[in-house]
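Sample 3 of the quickstart, ligand protoporphyrin IX containing FE:
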Amino acid sequence: MKKWSINFRIWHWANAIVVMGLIGTVLLRKGFLSYRENAQVILDKLSAIDVSITLDQAKTIARAIREPMWEWHIILGYALAFLVIYRIVLFFTQSGKKSFQFKELNTHHKLVSAGYVVIYATLFFMTVSGLVIHFYQDLGLLKETAGKIKDLHEAVYQIVLYFVPLHIIGVVAADIRDEKGITSDMINGGKN
Ligand code: HEM
Ligand code: HEM
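Result:
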């Protein structure tokens, strides 16, 4: 039997793409497409050609430029919600059940397992909180309450942001050192 079932591998790589995409949308929102910075660029460039608008008008334009990109946060958000349900279903399958369990459980493996538990809980929280902020009006929540949940959603984002590079570096290091082939196992399924 394979170490990782085909269903588990599809889940892992789809999840990796979706999570990295979500991080990408956040980095764009806070970086190149930051409405505060772009509003200033719009103001400066217009004033260079003798057109004057207010800062609020410039912010409205900058937000409109950002909007089509941010729609991807919501689209990928729905994809993540599907993947979280998919992962819960996988817990009841052979390869999902014995995941993040190692043959010899040394301190390092205990830490890796704990890291996976933390990231699963984090992804669950991000999905629920993200959906709640998106649908706050339908849920009858106040804007203020949605704002507080958004602050939590944004704070917990840090865990995802640090997990991804640490996970990739960790997997590459393990593959080079004492767990040769773990990356290709996640691609071809490996052997038990
Ligand atoms: C593109 C780079 C990535 C590579 C090469 C990679 C590779 C791997 C490998 C080889 C494993 C098995 C490790 C083991 O046996 O302990 C694994 C597990 C895992 N990966 Fe990734 N991964 C990548 C990206 C991601 C991303 C972006 C996420 C998003 C959160 C993620 C989430 C997970 C989780 C949760 C597990 C644990 C699965 C389980 O045992 O339940 N991976 N990854
Ligand atoms: C790994 C998963 C996710 C990460 C890392 C993430 C990250 C973030 C971050 C950092 C923000 C704050 C952006 C800012 O104000 O600068 C945010 C906002 C938001 N996220 Fe997520 N998110 C994730 C999943 C989701 C999901 C599943 C949904 C649901 C569809 C969602 C919907 C939203 C909404 C509606 C906002 C508020 C946008 C606004 O105020 O205009 N997110 N997300």
